[in-house]
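$ run holo --ligand "adenine" --emit C-alpha cells
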Amino acid sequence: MPLPKAELHLHIEGTLEPELAFALAARNGVTLPYQDTEELRRAYLFEDLQSFLDLYYGLMAVLLTEDDFAELADAYLARAADQGVRHAEIFFDPQAHTARGVPLGTVVGGLSRALDAAPERYGISTRLIMCFLRDLPAESAMETLRAAGPYLDRITGIGLDSAEVGHPPAKFKEVYEAAAALGLRRVAHAGEEGPASYIREALDVLGVERIDHGLRCLEDGELVDRLVRERMPLTLCPLSNVRLRAVDTLEAHPLPRMMAAGLLCTVNSDDPAYFGGYVGDTFHAVREALGLGPEQLRELARNSFEASFLEDDEERRAELIAAVDAYDFAVEGRA
Ligand SMILES: Nc1ncnc2[nH]cnc12
Ligand SMILES: [Zn+2]
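-- output --
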C-alpha cells in the first residue's frame, strides 16, 4: 500500500492523457493536429511554461460535454487512488472552456459527478478550486466569479494560474476581495517563473492561504523567514519544474534545502499527463533523485494534510495524519 497523501496542486485539464484525448476527439468529431498518441507525446518537449500552456490549451478542444469532464476527473481519481491519494484539491480553468463556448455549468456538472462518487468509489475526499487565467484581463476573472454564483456550493476556493511573468498578483486584488467576501478560500501560483516579489504580493495583496510553487522564494531570505514563521504551505511540483525548465535536473531541485530551512513543503504533480508522473510517481522520483529518507517522505505526506482545506472535517484530517504516522515503510515499501 502506498503512503497516504493529499494532492493540493493538480490541474484537472493537465490529467488529459493522449489516449483519452484521442477517444474524446473521435467521439466529439474534433480533429487534432497530431496523427496519433505517439506523435502527440513526442510534442511534450517544453522550453518553458508558455510552450507547455500552448499545447495544454489546444488539447482542451476535445473537452465538450458533461460526460467528457466526468470521465476526465474519474480517470484522474482512479490513478490517484492507486498512488495513495486520500484527499485531492483539484484546480480547473473555467475561462479556458467558456471561451470555447462550453458553459460553466457543463464543466462544474461533469467534474462534480466524478468528485461526488469519489469517496465511495476510491476512498478520496475532494475539493474544487476555480483558477483564473492571469494573462486575461481582471474583468474576465470578475465576470467568471459572478458566473460561478450558482455553483458556489461546489467550489471551495479560487486560484490563479497560466502565464505568470508580466501578470503580477495585484492585478487581481478586487477579484480576490470579492471571492473572500463570498467565503471562498484563496490560493495563487507565484514564484514558478515569476520573481519572489510575486509571492509577497500574493500574500499581502491577495491574502492567499497557500502558495502554488513558490520555488523562487529562495531568492529572498527575509521572505523565506516569513514563510517559515507563518507556516505558509508551498505546493511544490518537482517534475513540472524539470519539464518546464525552472530547474535544470531533478537532482538539482531545492526541495531538500527548502525542507531543511523549515518551509512547509508539499509535493504534487501539477499536470501529470504532461510531466511524466502522478503524485506517487513524484514521491518515488524525489526519493530516488534527492535521497529523501522515510522521515522526510512522511513529513511531506503529513504536510499535505496539514495544508489541505479539510477544516470542515477535522476528524478526517486527524485520521489521515494518523495513517501517515503509522505507515511502515519497511513493510509497505512504496512512497
Ligand atoms: N504549471 C502551471 N503554471 C501555471 N499555469 C498552469 N496551468 C496548468 N499548469 C500550470
Ligand atoms: Zn500549476
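-- notes --
The chain is about 50% helix and 15% strand.
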